[in-house]
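Narrative progress, year one. The postdoctoral researcher (J.K.) led the effort to move from monomer predictions toward full complexes, under supervision of the PI. The following entry was the first complex the group processed end to end, covering 576 residues in total.
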Amino acid sequence: MMTLRGLREFCIEKAIFLCGVAAVVFVLLIFTFLMREGFSLFFKIPMTELLAGTHWYPISDPPRFGILPLILGSLVVTVGATVLAVPVGVASALYIAEVAPAGIRDVMKAGIEMLAAIPSVVIGFIGMVTLVPFVKRLFGLPTGLTALSGSIMLGFMAMPTIVSIAEDAIAAVPTEYKQGALALGATRWQMLYRVVLHAASPGILAAVMLGIGRVIGETMAVMMITGNAAVIPESFLAPVRTMTATIAAEMGETVKGSLHYQALFAIGIVLFSITFVVNLVADIFLHKIKR
Amino acid sequence: MPLTTALPDRCDHVMTRLEYSAKDQSSALKPPPDAAGVIETQGLNLYYGTFHALIGVTIKIQPRRITSIIGPSGCGKSTLLRTFNRMNDLIEGIQITGNVIVEGANIYAPGCSIEQLRKRVGMVFQRPNPFPLTVFENVAFGPRVHKMAGRGELMGIVEQSLRAVLLWDSLKDRLHRSALELSLEEKQRLCIARAIAAKPEILLMDEPCSALDPIATARVEELMTGLKSRFTIVIVTHNMQQAARISDDTGFMLLGELIEFGDTDQVFTAPRNEKTEQYITGRFG
Ligand SMILES: Nc1ncnc2c1ncn2[C@@H]1O[C@H](COP(=O)(O)OP(=O)(O)O)[C@@H](O)[C@H]1O
Ligand SMILES: [Mg+2]
């Protein structure tokens, strides 16, 4: 016979199980929905025209659905943000984990967490009123809404992820390695550079990948400061439009089931595939550490 | 309390009883011929915070010999060893008085270079700690850090060092594989090779065999005996048989004090101190 206590345990167990299952079911539902709405476009428009087409004119007649400019827009902003955020992020992780005195370390860690807590729309408008005019004046451009502005602001958004995960990886390097290096007469910097960074490299790579994942998926801030011109970007100083911004800006105006609507879902599929691969790679690195 | 002062990363905070002139420091790189490979301490005291871990240790370790430091666990063997290459500097709240003279130069005097000291005084740890790099990069670490070799010479140094620890034949085809794939014994040999590659005069070993099985231990002991023609070797061990087997001189420590120091045969067969006798006959420890 089941006691009252046993019954309670049973119910709690099942409830937790259902929550767990729900998470998986939702992911599957979202994935199926994305595929159902977007996949048919791959049959209506040749893959080459979709992925390699250079014109995104969804509402002209006839419409053109080349998403290459959007892919490149995302790519340019992401690469820019990565190039800016990775060195700074890894360096500050190294500083926090290995160099900073305890007091400064706590302040910096708190600061990094605060940075992570700033909503992306706030980062967006701060960039809009400070960075955008600055970029415009600095380079003498017709507009400061450029890939560069987007990269800088997104770099800030990727920093907390990169710093905190890289810091964990660096702090987890066994002291035996550090002692071994110092005992051979290495200076502290040589020890950090030649041994600690090497030992922490899988974790640092995972940090970088997760940072990139954050940047690719970001929407609000890029929409506000990259200028949203759906053309193939010629430089970092030109306006670009990312895949995310396109979906966010245009989804409200489309007719459900129309070609344009399907095209936006197709962009979603491309975006999903990219973030999936990036997260997978990050995961592989993280697993490598655990072993 | 005697003269004590916090010991930071720099040398200049430490009071020393003997004054060493600037001339002595500038000649620190080239020791006087009779001082090569000699370690000497004079009235050495070390405190971890308020805990008095080394009490008035005075010892003179002779070159090209194996000196073992024995004693029960916690008596300060590792602490003493770590003062010889200043690895204790990494520990917070440490205080040192007295002198440690390595190859004629007071290593706690202001102006000494810790990096140069550690290049001359290599160290092998209790648990083998090869870096998570390739075999080659492990051995090449010291020469690279001290800019001892051009690109072409590096391979020669790596080969020599691996030959010295009898690893060359088994590893010469695996130089670019991770050192973490090696067996425990190979790892410890690699760590010895890594220390040798920096061309030190002195090798400090802190219970280098305690992680190894008896067969590997015997082989590493054999290796150490082979190395003593080129290096001054100081080995900490709590294994008395090991000390008796391989060392020329033996020091016995108890509760932070060096109770007895002398020829290994004498210490083990005719100890002068009663406590030494009690320890080696197994009455405590
Ligand atoms: N970092 C440290 N901080 C405080 N006390 C320490 C530290 N390292 C060692 N000790 C103490 O100093 C004494 C000697 O330690 P150690 O030199 O490691 O002994 P042994 O190597 O002979 O076993 C022990 O009582 C130990 O607890
Ligand atoms: Mg010890």
